Automatic annotation (TrEMBL):
<keyword id="KW-1003">Cell membrane</keyword>
<dbReference type="InterPro" id="IPR015855">
    <property type="entry name" value="ABC_transpr_MalK-like"/>
</dbReference>
<dbReference type="Pfam" id="PF17912">
    <property type="entry name" value="OB_MalK"/>
</dbReference>
<feature type="domain" description="ABC transporter">
    <location>
        <begin position="4"/>
        <end position="234"/>
    </location>
</feature>
<keyword id="KW-0472">Membrane</keyword>
<dbReference type="GO" id="GO:0005524">
    <property type="term" value="F:ATP binding"/>
</dbReference>
<dbReference type="InterPro" id="IPR047641">
    <property type="entry name" value="ABC_transpr_MalK/UgpC-like"/>
</dbReference>
<dbReference type="InterPro" id="IPR003593">
    <property type="entry name" value="AAA+_ATPase"/>
</dbReference>
<comment type="similarity">
    <text>Belongs to the ABC transporter superfamily.</text>
</comment>
<protein>
    <submittedName>
        <fullName>Sn-glycerol-3-phosphate ABC transporter ATP-binding protein UgpC</fullName>
    </submittedName>
</protein>
<dbReference type="Pfam" id="PF00005">
    <property type="entry name" value="ABC_tran"/>
</dbReference>
<dbReference type="InterPro" id="IPR017871">
    <property type="entry name" value="ABC_transporter-like_CS"/>
</dbReference>
<dbReference type="InterPro" id="IPR027417">
    <property type="entry name" value="P-loop_NTPase"/>
</dbReference>
<dbReference type="InterPro" id="IPR003439">
    <property type="entry name" value="ABC_transporter-like_ATP-bd"/>
</dbReference>
<dbReference type="InterPro" id="IPR008995">
    <property type="entry name" value="Mo/tungstate-bd_C_term_dom"/>
</dbReference>
<keyword id="KW-0067">ATP-binding</keyword>
<keyword id="KW-0813">Transport</keyword>
C-alpha cells in the first residue's frame, strides 16, 4: 500500500526551479533514504512532505489524501530535526508530551505513550531533566521520542545524526534500525552519510540538482548504478573511473581501454554508438596479479589500513590514482610496484556524454 505519493512534485524559488518533477511512491512501512550532494534538494523535498515548504506544483498524497495545501499539523507525520528542536525550558517529559497535550489528548493516554516511548528509547531516567542537562545522543532520543508518542503515519528525519560524534552515530544508527524493525513505520530520511543510507534504507533515492538520478535498493545502486553520477556517489572509497572508447566491429561491441580491447557483455540489444565512455571499477574488483596479466601497474603511494581491510592507492601514471582493496594484513608497503587486473564481471561502462550505464 502506498503511504506517501509524490507525483510531478516541483519547487521553485522565484524563477529558480530547485526540484523538477519528482515521482516517488513510498510504500507503507518503507524506509526511504534521500541522498545526494549538497544543494541537490534533499531537505527541500523533505520539508515539502512535512508541509514546512510550499509545493510549487504536482500532487502530494499522504495516506491517499491530497495534502498539498494542508498545514504540517494536519498531515499526520512527525519530523525529527538535525538540531533536535527541543523546548529548552521544558523537561524531557514535557517535551515529549507537548504535542499530544496541544491536541487535547487524554492525560492517561499521554502518560502511557510517553512511558512506552521512554522505555523503547531508554530515556526514562532523564524524564525530569531539561535538554541542556542531556548529552547529544540523549537529546536525539528525546526528539525521536517526541515524534513516536504522536503515533504518526510517517516519520521524517532530516540528518538526525549529523551533530553526534562518530561512536554515537553508530549507536544511534543501530537504535533507528531496531526501532524501524519493531515499529515498521513509514520513514523518509535525509542524510549525507553513505553508511547510514546503505544500512538503513529499503530504497535509496539519489538526487542530482533536483532530479532523481536513480531509486532502488542499496545493493542495486551499488552493483548496478544507472549512471556515472550514482556510481561515483555511492560507495566509499569512490569507484575508480577511467576514460575508454566504445568500438563496434562487425556488430560486436567492445571497449578499448589503454591497449586492451574487451567485449562488452550485456549490451547486445542496445542502440549503441561508438565513442567515448568511462569504465568504472570498484576497489574490491581489482586483484593483484603478475605483470604479464596486469591491466594496471603502479607504485603504491598510500596504504590505508582500516583493520577490516586495507586500501592502497596506486600511481599509475594517469592523473587519477587507482584505489585497490587489499586484505587487512596484506604485505604491501608504500613504494612497492603493484600490478592488478579487474574482475571482468564487475566492470561498469558509462557513456561519456550522457553518463548513462551501457552494460
Ligand atoms: N529560500 C531559498 N531561496 C532560494 N533558493 C533556495 C532556498 N532554499 C534552498 N534553496 C536552494 O535550493 C536548492 C536545494 O536546497 P536544499 O537545502 O534542499 O539542498 P540539500 O540537498 O538539502 O543540501 P544540503 O545537503 O547542503 O543540506 C539549493 O540550490 C539551495 O540553494
Amino acid at each position: 500500500m502506498t503511504a506517501i505519493s509524490l507525483r510531478e512534485i516541483r519547487k521553485s524559488y522565484g524563477s529558480l526551479q530547485v526540484i523538477h518533477d519528482i515521482d516517488i511512491e513510498i510504500e507503507s512501512g518503507e524506509f526511504l533514504v534521500l541522498v545526494g550532494p549538497s544543494g541537490c534538494g534533499k531537505s527541500t523535498l523533505l520539508r515539502m512532505i512535512a508541509g514546512l515548504e510550499e509545493i510549487s506544483g504536482g500532487r502530494l498524497e499522504i495516506g491517499g489524501k491530497l495534502v498539498n495545501a494542508l498545514p504540517p499539523s494536519q498531515r499526520d507525520i512527525a519530523m525529527v530535526f538535525q538540531d533536535y528542536a527541543l523546548y529548552p525550558h521544558m523537561t524531557v517529559l514535557e517535551n515529549m508530551a507537548f504535542g499530544l497535550k496541544m491536541r487535547g489528548t487524554n492525560q492517561a493516554v499521554i502518560q502511557q505513550r510517553v512511558a512506552q516511548a521512554a522505555d523503547v528509547l531508554r530515556i526514562r531516567p532523564f524524564l525530569n531533566r531539561r535538554p541542556a542537562q542531556l548529552s547529544g545522543g540523549q537529546r536525539q532520543r528525546v526528539a525521536m521520542g517526541r515524534a513516536i508518542v504522536r503515533e504518526p503515519s510517517a516519520f521524517l528525519f532530516d540528518e538526525p545524526l549529523s551533530n553526534l560524534d562518530a561512536a554515537l552515530r553508530v549507536e544511534m544508527r543501530l537504535e533507528i534500525a531496531k526501532l524501524h524493525n519493531r515499529m515498521k513505520a513509514t520513514t523518509v530520511y535525509v542524510t549525507h552519510d553513505q553508511v547510514e543510507a546503505m544500512t538503513l534504507a529499503d530504497r535509496i533515492v539519489v538526487l542530482n540538482t533536483g532530479r532523481i538520478e536513480q531509486i532502488g535498493p542499496p545493493l542495486e545502486l551499488y552493483h548496478r548504478p544507472a549512471s556515472l553520477f550514482v556510481a561515483r556517489f555511492i560507495g566509499s572509497p569512490t569507484m575508480n573511473t577511467l576514460p575508454a572508447e566504445l568500438v563496434i566491429q562487425g556488430g560486436e561491441v567492445a571497449i578499448r581501454l589503454k591497449d586492451r580491447t574487451i567485449a562488452l557483455k550485456g549490451a547486445a540489444d542496445q542502440n549503441l554508438r561508438a565513442g567515448a565512455v568511462t569504465v568504472g571499477i570498484r576497489p574490491e574488483d581489482l586483484a593483484v596479479c603478475n605483470p604479464e596479466e596486469a591491466w594496471f601497474g603502479g607504485k603504491l603511494a598510500v596504504a590505508e589500513r582500516l583493520g577490516t581491510q586495507t586500501y592502497g592507492y596506486l600511481e599509475t601514471g594517469d592523473a587519477r590514482m587507482l584505489t585497490v582493496e587489499f586484505s587487512r594484513d596484506a604485505a604491501i608497503n608504500v613504494g612497492d610496484l603493484i600490478h592488478v587486473r579487474p574482475n571482468m564481471d564487475a566492470i561498469h561502462v558509462f557513456e561519456e556524454a550522457s553518463g548513462r550505464r551501457l552494460n
